[in-house]
Amino acid sequence: MTEVLLGKLTRREFRERMRAGELQACVIPVAAIEQHLEHLAMEHDWRSVNEIALGAARRLAPRVVVAQGLMAGISEHHMKHPGTLSLRPGSFLAVLSDMIESMTRAGFRNILVLNGHGGNVRPCEGVWDQFLQINEISLHFLSYWDMVDRQHARDVMKTSAVPGHAQEFETAFALAAFAENVRTEVMADQPDSSPAQATAETGRKLLELYTTAVASYLLDMIEGRKTAPIPPFMP
Length: 235
Description:
Blueprint: H1 11-19, E1 25-30, H2 44-59, E2 64-66, H3 89-106, E3 110-115, H4 121-135, E4 138-143, H5 150-154, H6 168-177, H7 200-222
Parallel strand pairs: 1-2, 1-3, 3-4
Helix pairs in contact: 2-7, 3-4, 6-7
């Protein structure tokens, strides 16, 4: 199987694949380490977005590589729960900017920053025009849950919150992709009963939906159907 994770490649392997024109797009996942009620591990957002990114890259192998992105995100609104790792918006954006620049300097002209945490959205959207102007490449920022019509996800679920927070959607995803992170024995020990509606079967259907959508988007980027126009500078 072709390796799709950047950090698993040696410098020679990466260099030769770039020189051959084999690698045509890079995914940088960003997420959060924060509380997910009583029953899901705090790494949930990171594991989810990384799982989708890797799955999409494997479908398009050898054309896509996944960089080790940002596990921690902007999670101040969860800090009352000890254990949450939260970055200041400026810190998060500075590191993300450096990662994007690193991959641009490596030769990528197509980069997708794939987001798995709601708290990262508005800060990124606020600076994205500047990121485009600085890097002058086809640079995209998208949350994975926005890449599929929400009704398509609801069609395979019993409840309606997409993506919600540690509810049926996220719990089902975890049961399918990394069940060791789900504490099923404590699901009932909290006010929200929707996690108990989750099944691994539902999670597998959701994983397929979102992995397919991300792979399709990446292919459109590679083949020029999805572009990110550079905003004009002020005259």
